[in-house]
Amino acid sequence: MVLSTAPVGEYDRRVVILTKEQGKIAAFAKGSRRPNSPLVGAVNPFTFGEFTMYEGRTSHTIQSANITNYFSELRNDMIGAYYGFYFLEFANYYTKEFNDEREMLKLLYQTLRALSNPHIPNRLIRYIFELRAYCINGEGPQVFQCVVCGDKDRPAVFSVNKGGIVCSECGHDVIDGMRLDGSTLYSMQYIETSKIEKLYTFNVKEEVLEQLAKVMDRYRDVYVDKKFKSLEILETLK
Asked: How far apart are CA 8 and CA 35, in angstroms?
């Protein structure tokens, strides 16, 4: 999937693609800004398909593309498009070259599909994507047992700084504890463990959505050392 594209010279583009085989790849699409180029519509953000390229001494060059999904519906939905750009930007930040990124690619694809579903709020899609992406990157919070002692039964609070839930016996030094509604905790457990294809098959009440918002906003502030331009634009559009 194309994560980003930028003009180079008079007719070319530099494209960043997330692949199953080699992780994130930067490649040149020569002549793709010419109106008659076969690549003119294939190297835009959101396009998903098979890309044929050759590897030079210092860079990759795209030869052809077989696009199976353009996610063209996002072009008619400005808010949905900016959510999509945020997901691309987030994935671009987290993924690496020569890494197995098939889980992130699968998550990204299913997330963009969910944006076209009018029955799932975009905000919920965002929190589901963020939480699962943290898990894929090995930074997901522990939401099944106390992060200190492993207890599963005592009352607990959620601590971003501790990286998950902390029981009443271990929480004496927790200063950022949040008491989560049972539905919020269950939602987080489902997001962390369900198959990616099943992620966007539920909805939540407004109170749960607000708690997820607080958790994920704090989590991003602590664990993500980057300001996303698309997210800043989204905040102004609400």
From this structure: 16
Separation of alpha carbons 13 and 227, rounded Å: 25
Cα torsion angle, 188, 194, 196, 202, sign? negative
DSSP string, 84-144: HHHHHHHHHHH--BTS--HHHHHHHHHHHHHTT-TTS-HHHHHHHHHHHHHHHTT---B-S
Q: Read off the pLDDT of residues 198-236 as tens digits, 9 standing for 90 and up.
A: 999 999 999 999 999 999 999 999 999 999 999 999 989
Asked if 230 and 78 count as a contact pair (C-beta separation under 8 A), the reply is no
Token reading at 215: 């958790």
pTM attached to this predicted model: 0.95
Residues in a beta bridge with 54: 61
| Residue 67 parent element (H or E) | strand 60-69
Is the separation of the CB atoms in 152 and 189 below 8 Å?
Answer: no
State the residue for tokens 């939540």: 204
Return d(Cα 159, Cα 219) in angstroms, integer.
Answer: 9
DSSP for 136-189, please give it. Answer: HTT---B-SS-TTT--SSS-EEEETTTTEEEETTTGGG-SS-BPPPHHHHHHHH
Which of 136, 161, 133, 132 is closest to 147 using CA atoms?
Answer: 161
∠ CA(28), CA(229), CA(238), 5° rounding?
Answer: 135
CA 182 to chain centre: 25
